[in-house]
Amino acid sequence: GVDVHTLVKYAALSADISAEEAIDLVLHNTYPDKDNLWRGYKRLKFVPFNPVDKYTMAVIQDEQTGQVFRLLKGAPQVVLKRAHNFAEIHEPVEKKIIDYANRGYRALGFGMAEGPGSTDAPGTRWEFLGLLPLFDPPR
Q1: pTM of this structure
Q2: Which among 10, 75, 106, 128 would be 20 to 30 A from 95, CA to CA?
């Protein structure tokens, strides 16, 4: 994983606020420097959420370095399963997901991979960045 500040930044970069989805608006607006977030970054592609895959993917370019990377956001188990080190990290991550749920929070998982392409492009190595809890009160 990464530190909280970095995770919140990548979460904000993964958000598509043009569709005004509540979760994306929260992720974007939580980043302390949201007004300057896109200075130096360019979104090349956005794959919206669908109920089958249970994730969104943003392809982002760092305009200073030219580096292109993909950010995956979605159901934590779905993002976690793509992690290159799934075997080593899945138990503590799954415990944290349950811990959040027991306290009334739903977790979102975040992952990152270098390069453009689809989620399953050859050579893709997903890094699990972490979890962010969202308060999800019973209805």
Answers
A1: 0.93
A2: 10
